[in-house]
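User: I'm curious whether this sequence folds into something compact or stays loose and floppy. Could you predict its structure so I can see for myself?
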Amino acid sequence: MGHALGWRIVDWPATGDISNVSAFVLPAGTPVADDRQQLPMFPDPERILRLLEDMAETQRETAHVQRLLAEQQLHYTAPHGAAAEDDHRYQPRDEEFRTWSGFRTEMQRLEARVRRERRLAASDQVSKKDMGVAGGPSGKTIERILERAYALPAKLWPPSTWPEELPQQETNGQI
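Assistant: Here's the prediction. I'll summarize afterward.
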């Protein structure tokens, strides 16, 4: 195995005559459990028992709190209705797009501008990509707003066909 070595500090009074060293560090044996020189961590057995009892009590309390939290989670019911859906729905970053009328108006204005600039016929359709190139949101962003903020299909296009009022979605009891 070998010897366990440590260091021992020996104080030495510093005198100005010989040297100004105030201590020496010398190699020394380190007490380990085998040489019966290590001091017990808890000399009092009652302290060990008290510590173990405290640990057990803490574990019981933790388990009790976890059980209570699990029961609360089982009995928790999510709120139903339109108010609950509105609290967690996707919000577009552009404040103008946070209302259906604002989003619809801006998209129709942008569609008209693209038609005018590109001289498109009434039968020609403006693509979502054209809207993004003209300075509006990208096609992916338009789809995201339609699907997440207004629960409408992304294929609902062009904006000139959108109704003034947001169509009500039937959930048939489904979430």
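Summary: The chain has a mean pLDDT of 78. The radius of gyration is 38 Å.
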